[in-house]
Write a structure and sequence with these properties.
The complex is a heterodimer of chains A (about 110) and B (about 120). Chain A is mainly β. Helices cover about 0% and strands about 60% of the residues of chain A. In chain B, the strands form two sheets. In chain B, strands 2, 4, 5, 6, 9, 10 and 11 form a seven-stranded mixed β-sheet that branches. Chain B has a four-stranded antiparallel β-sheet with strand order 1-3-8-7, with no helix packed on it. Chain B has no helices and eleven strands. The model of chain B has no long low-confidence stretch (mean pLDDT about 95). The chains are: A mainly beta (about 110), B mainly beta (about 120).
Chain lengths: ~110, ~120
């Protein structure tokens, strides 16, 4: 069964510090991996999508990495801001069919403290 | 920018009522989805539609049905609401197969409470 595991479940860091969120998956055959940011009371918003051939992708202060061999991805946040407080969800798409081919992680809840 | 609009942000209904949640997208996307989100469980797919009048069951379809009469609108129906259906409901849309590497676009959710 396809699975996506995220760690840590929650994280508290001080404003201005960097942090890294992890995503391990067992989805096969792999199509792409997505990171979403979900602010409290809002819907998830896409940060990045990575395909098999992409190792690193940046979106402002967010940098995602993908190691397709070890089936791991990370999301690195640089110089955190209060507005980065949110849940970050890793989603992996398979290319093998199924209703929508998407497997969701349960998210990492990030709190940035001033 | 793609906009996915859910008709209500908050909704309170009684056990046994028939409940309708509406979702509209403005980008001509083929795919539309209904999820529920519960603490500790993440997003779980209820139903998925890849075209008008087409639907597929997701992981937790029991107690729900859907309707897609027009491309831009996808409705979720709770046939007889129960307290265990209290949850945050999220609608999403995405392009069809040609957009397999495109993200989903989500609405801001409907927080539904069943009393």
């Amino acid at each position: 069964k396809n699975q996506v595991e995220q760690s840590p479940q929650s994280l508290i860091i001080l404003e201005g510090k960097n942090c890294t969120l992890q995503c391990n998956y067992t989805v096969s055959p792999f199509s792409n991996l997505r990171w979403y940011k979900q602010d409290t009371g809002r819907g998830p918003v896409s940060l990045t999508i990575m395909t098999f051939s992409e190792n690193t992708k940046s979106n402002g202060r967010y940098t995602a990495t993908l190691d397709a061999d070890t089936k791991q991805s990370s999301l690195h946040i640089t110089a955190s801001q209060l507005s980065d407080s949110a849940s970050y969800i890793c989603v992996v798409r398979d290319s093998g069919g199924g209703a929508d081919g998407l497997t969701f992680g349960k998210g990492t809840h990030l709190i940035i403290q001033p | 920018d793609v906009k996915v609009t859910q008709s209500s942000r908050y909704l309170v209904k009684r056990t046994g009522e028939k409940v309708f949640l509406e979702c509209v997208q403005d980008m001509d996307h083929e795919n539309m989805f209904w999820y529920r989100q519960d603490p500790g469980l993440g997003l779980r797919l209820i139903y998925f539609s890849y075209d008008v009048k087409m639907k597929e069951k997701g992981d937790i379809p029991e107690g729900y049905s859907v309707s897609r009469e027009k491309k831009e609108r996808f409705s979720l129906i709770l046939e007889s609401a129960s307290t265990n259906q209290t949850s945050m409901y999220l609608c999403a849309s995405s392009p069809g197969q040609r957009g397999a590497n495109q993200p989903q676009h989500f609405g801001d959710g409907t927080r539904l409470s069943i009393l």
